[in-house]
Amino acid sequence: MILKIAQQLIENEYVPIIKNTGSNIFCGGKQIGPCLYCVIAVNADMPDYKQRFEQMAGYLGGSYSVQNFNLIILGIFAADNITEELREYATVDAEIFEKVNILKWVLTPNGVEIFGKQPTKLADLRTIAENAVNADTTPQSLDDIIINNENKRRERIVSKDSVFTFIMLALIGVVFAAQIFDADGAMLDAFCTLPFAEGQYYRYLTAIFLHLGFTHFISNCLGLYLFGTRTERYFGKANFLMIFFAGGILANLTSSLFGTSGVGASGAIMALMGAVTAYSFGTKRSVDGFDMHLLVLFLLINLVVGGLYEGIDNIAHIAGFIYGYVLGMLKTPRKS
Length: 336
Hints:
It is a single chain. With about 325 residues, this protein is α/β, with parallel strands linked by helices. The protein has 13 helices and 7 strands. The chain has helices at about 1-10, 50-65, 85-90, 125-135, 140-155, 165-180, 185-190, 205, 215-235, 235-255, 265-285, 290-310, 315-330, and strands at about 15-20, 25-30, 35-45, 70-80, 90-95, 100-110, 110-115. It has a 7-stranded mixed beta sheet, sandwiched between helices. It is elongated.
């Protein structure tokens, strides 16, 4: 059972913290926001399971509590039957969470059992534990789990490079350099979006490459790098171009229908963010360190900033994200 738990944890981006622990104990960790979740899965049929768990929990507490984390150590005690001794040991009252928290769940063939005042949901860990119970096969070793998971990760990468992202960055840079020498703003007047387009539909495309100052330019370049490289790697080059241009054009079109005009790659970048979010949600995995929770946080921060400052087109941002998310869901493989 411990190797099945380890397999589920590693497939859900939990990193082995202590290796060479055998098949009776496993320790893995994952940072989610300000919290570091450390899971210690222990075979409760071992006579010294308490000592093994406490030794590892003490190591984790001493190693990570001094860092800027809220450390949550979860013991998952795998047992065929729950003895009174195990029930008493796994009973925890955790009403108030502090910097270091130790929780204990019991995993039986019937699922997760929780005793005392403990959270019944903790990130994605209950689902992971119950998936381990339902797994059909048992891995041979921890090394096999790590190798198989790495092979699956490589299979998910469609494009080995992100050259098209850098081409888009270069094009935006060239246009911005031309804008610097365009003192009277003729480029903006000729190529920005207009309410209802006024028949000049090319503006929905050309506006993507224009920017209103250095800060606007740099922030969009950073967003394009972060989300463009991931979109291109996991969706492929053709899909990257489709999401970037379709998302950007449709975001500009939606904004203009509300009577606004604008410039910038923000709508296209939000479409890329939406696609990456869809991928993380659809596969239940992080995308090169970006999981769904972090991506939604990025979206909320973006919308809050857009609401605080004038001149930021939140309509285009929201529309771009929605279009990108829909396109991303259509292109995202189901969880393997």
